[in-house]
Amino acid sequence: MDSLNELFVAIQIIIPISAVLRIIINIHETVIDDDQKPTLMKRNKNIIVFVVISECVVSIINTLYKYLYF
Predict the structure, then answer these.
(1) How many CA within 13 A on the CB side of residue 29?
(2) What is the pLDDT of residue 1?
(3) How far is it, in rounded angstroms, from Cα 63 to Cα 12?
(4) pTM, full prediction
(5) At what angle do helices 37-69 and 2-32 cross, to 10 degrees?
(6) Which of 15, 29, 43, 69 has the fewest CB atoms nearer than 10 Å to its CB?
């Protein structure tokens, strides 16, 4: 059961790190090609929304798991 808890913690660490890396890549692409700036800014917004929603979902699942099995 501890391995499942460790998996939740790993997911909560990996998702924001990968999102930050993706946003950095998008900013770099914006510097290279200004024509795609609106599209890339929209992608950045979608990445942030995804991180917030996924972190909330993982936190809720982790809380329910701890409540039900501990």
Answers:
(1) 15
(2) 63
(3) 13
(4) 0.85
(5) 170
(6) 69
Taken as a whole, the chain contains a residue count of 70
Q: pLDDT at position 69, please?
A: 83
How far apart, in whole angstroms, are the C-alpha atoms of residue 24 and residue 35?
Answer: 17
The closest of 67, 64, 54 to 11, measured between CA atoms, is: 54
Quick one: tokens of 53? 């929603």
Angle at 45 between CA 61 and CA 42, to 5 degrees: 140
SS3 70: coil
Could you give the CA distance from residue 60 to residue 53 in angstroms, rounded to a whole number? 11
Q: Report H helices in 1-70.
A: 2-32, 37-69
